[in-house]
Amino acid sequence: MQCQQPGHECAGCMEKPMAPISEIVRTVHLEHDQMLILEDLRTGRVRVLHGGVWLTEPGETRDHFLQPGDALPVRSAGALVQAQGPTQVELTRLGRRPRAAWWPRLRALAARWHLGPVPDTCA
């Protein structure tokens, strides 16, 4: 179903097939105690290929210790990674997310806050 209002997007429009999420992957080698600040990795993932890391994110109360094979999503810029020995990590930065992915969450929030029904499509 297409929205009849120019420049307006409704749930019907947002359910159209969209381009897949693009991924940019980079492998980084770290020496023991070497630190890496992930300034440009707002939405991505850190995966340990070899060694181990301590990872902390601004505003988070929990720190994470990752071993080979472990992966953790990164949700904010400025996350800090410190190698716990010679380490190799894979950094994945995700491209844009399909808008349809956030629409159900928006509808659920509107219902929880008693804002009234959110239409499935435009009139």
TrEMBL record:
<protein>
    <submittedName>
        <fullName>DUF2917 domain-containing protein</fullName>
    </submittedName>
</protein>
<dbReference type="InterPro" id="IPR021317">
    <property type="entry name" value="DUF2917"/>
</dbReference>
<dbReference type="Pfam" id="PF11142">
    <property type="entry name" value="DUF2917"/>
</dbReference>
